[in-house]
Fold:
Amino acid sequence: MTVRLRFSDLRAQPGLLTGLERLGEACWPGFLLHGDVRSWHLLPEEFPSFQTALLDPLGEPVAAGHCVPLSWDGTIGGLPSRIEEIIARASADLRSGRVAGAISALAVLVRPDMRGRGLSRAVLERMKILGSRRSCTCLIAPVRPVLKERWPLASMEAYAGWRDAEGAPVDPWIRTHWRMGASILAVAPDTLTVTESVAGWESWTGLSFPASGSYCIPGGLQPLEIDLEADRGTYRDPNLWMVHRIDASTGLPEDCDPDPGLDRVGDPPPGLAAPDAGPGGSAFTSRPRPWASWR
Ligand SMILES: CC(C)(COP(=O)(O)OP(=O)(O)OC[C@H]1O[C@@H](n2cnc3c(N)ncnc32)[C@H](O)[C@@H]1OP(=O)(O)O)[C@@H](O)C(=O)NCCC(=O)NCCS
Structure:
């Protein structure tokens, strides 16, 4: 059966927020919703048209894309380190009138029962269209590889380089970006940190932590560090920065109105320093990098 989906966003439909919260809860490991991202609530306030959702016929979000326009100098060193830093920079750009030449993804979510149908690609294409309308030349994305949790002890640098027999990235989510022509820029080792008591972590994960040390946890891309004496567990979420070029041919659907409040966003960054020239290659600079309450 074909289900007809349509895009909307928080500017057109502020009431979508509740559905987006439900989608987030269905998609993330619970602990990730408790990360040190303090500015997520700014997204509906300052960047509502960049919070997009694919809606089913009943108006329920089945997929979402969260992004912001921001200034980026095109260098690896100029990439934000953390999710919080992405939002803070975008917000500062907006308030100061600084030109944003890039769009940065914050998250792409597809409801579990709708995965494997290419919806995430549609969401990424939508982000590129939003950028294109503002003359942005690239979409940058802190990619959270979906299968990395199976190999939590492998370094992200090594994992990102793993290729299958056809030379494509082993990880399906990295592969989706790669097939769209995106390049790997850098590892972002700490995009978001979750700090909680040992009892809190035991409740989130269903595991017990009888001694201090490193523990592999469901949904964790690298181990959780437990310090019993301090009664603290710390998890740092590593991502992989990738970049998509946005060119003049990126489509502009008629239903995609620019947000008047964001019309100052426009000029491209001076250049892209993408050391990995397209599918297959990779180059890394290990950089620190950080989630999410809407209210
Ligand atoms: C990552 C995510 C957005 C991908 O969405 P999607 O719509 O399933 O993506 P696609 O349909 O393009 O599938 C891409 C590939 O991943 C595979 N895939 C999708 N979900 C998968 C899963 N849970 N496990 C293994 N493979 C999966 C698909 O089969 C496809 O493989 P292919 O390249 O061989 O065709 C989705 O899995 C998701 O919402 N995950 C939870 C949130 C998240 O981690 N988001 C990304 C970080 S921002």
Q: What stands out?
A: The two ends are 37 Å apart (CA to CA). Residues 252-291 have pLDDT under 50 and may be disordered. The longest helix spans residues 83-96.
